[in-house]
Design goal:
37% of the residues lie in helices and 16% in strands. It is α/β, with parallel strands linked by helices and 371 residues long. The strands form two sheets. An eight-stranded mixed sheet has the order 3-2-1-4-5-6-14-15, sandwiched between helices.
Length: 371
């Protein structure tokens, strides 16, 4: 198969879909790899490194899209990229379609076969292609929140861990999944007063056993969320409904109860955000203020640590890329139901139920197209 990767064009996105090492693996399996010049610059991977791995360097993204049978990316295709997709071409990347009707409409119109990293599953019911970026984002959320809490950045002027004689900051983490767990680990490690909020008794028990006295757990009832948000210096939004829009758990009214200069970090912003006042921001302008509360809602947080993120992502995406290239998309998905769960759009049909429901499309099961 002819596989291509391009330079990401989303604001301050430095990751790349294929590392030189991944390109080498594809070439070793008999495939041809096209790489847009400069695609790996953000992770320190030169064109020469790709050539040494057996890839071919091309001058433009347009050439990659025109020639490649499968395009491997990191972030959702931007409008100019979606216009270059063609019927039957495989797009393998993060999509996050539920809160993005414009992207979904363009992908449906293109007829491309669109496999989303974030809905590929594993035998335990997890999301293995989302997990490493969730780990990165959870850890970064605390770094970003700590910076936003500094007075020079609009925050309360509070140090997360405090100092002897001064209480630490209160951190509320809404969601006890991969993002929430990693955020809580970082915050607790810095000495913050951490509360993790989740609705699953099993998750709460697991987190309580893991953190012991280093973090508290709280059931995610509306009153509990409201009380925790009112007390917090920093709130991390870490909820996920796979493939669907995130629920709005922190309302506009709750902001009036918060401390002036408190910080909200919405890690769920790729799925529309879990705070009612959230809208996507970029690394160039990461924060804004609503009712005296600082909001950090960068939609590609892991792009800020591009090298770590790219290699962590490639570790989990490459095996499926190889399967698709070796077998073709239909056979690869037919053999692996977990990879088939990644099919969101194909030949003008929406094949992921949560996306179809949220955006008003007729749902066509992936199995109907795979055969």
């Amino acid at each position: 198969m002819l596989v291509g990767t391009v330079k990401e064009i989303k604001n301050h996105e430095y990751r790349v879909g294929l590392t030189p090492e991944s390109a080498h693996e594809l070439v070793a399996h008999g495939h041809t790899v096209l790489v847009e010049t400069g695609a790996g610059a953000g992770i320190g991977a030169t064109d020469e490194a790709y050539v040494a791995a057996g890839a071919q360097i091309v001058a433009t993204a347009a050439e990659v899209f025109a020639r490649a049978e499968m395009v491997v990316k990191v972030k959702e295709p931007q409008a100019v990229e979606r216009a270059m997709l063609r019927e039957g071409q495989i797009l393998y990347t993060y999509l996050h379609l539920a809160p993005d009707p414009e992207q979904t409409a363009d992908l449906v119109k293109s007829g491309a076969v669109c496999i989303a990293y974030e809905t590929v599953t594993d035998a335990s019911g997890g999301l293995p292609l989302l997990k490493p970026m969730s780990q990165v984002a959870g850890r970064m959320a605390i770094q970003a929140g700590a910076t936003a809490l500094e007075k020079a950045h609009g925050g309360r002027g509070v140090l997360l861990g405090g100092v002897p004689g001064v209480l630490p900051a209160k951190v509320a983490v809404i969601g006890g999944g991969v993002v929430g767990f990693n955020a809580a680990q970082m915050a607790a490690g810095l000495g913050a007063d951490v509360t993790i909020i989740d609705r699953s008794p099993e998750v709460l028990e697991r987190l309580s056993n893991h953190f012991e006295s280093r973090a508290k757990t709280l059931y995610a009832g509306k009153a509990n969320i409201a009380a925790a948000v009112a007390e917090a210096d920093l709130v991390i939004g870490a909820v996920l409904v796979p493939g669907a829009a995130a629920p709005k758990l922190v309302t506009r009214e709750m902001l009036a109860t918060m401390k002036p200069g408190a910080v909200l970090v919405d890690v769920a912003i790729d799925q529309g955000g879990c705070f009612e006042t959230s809208h996507a921001t970029t690394h160039a302008e990461p924060t804004y203020v609503v009712d005296g509360v600082v909001h950090y809602c960068v939609a590609n947080m892991p792009g800020g640590v591009a090298r770590t993120s790219t290699y962590a992502l490639n570790n989990v995406t490459l095996p499926h890329a190889l399967a698709i290239a070796n077998l073709g998309w239909k056979a690869a998905l037919a053999r692996n139901v977990h990879l088939a769960n990644g099919l969101n759009v194909a030949f003008g049909k929406v094949t992921y139920e949560a996306v179809a429901k949220d955006l008003g499309y007729t749902y066509i099961p992936a199995a109907d197209l795979i055969g």
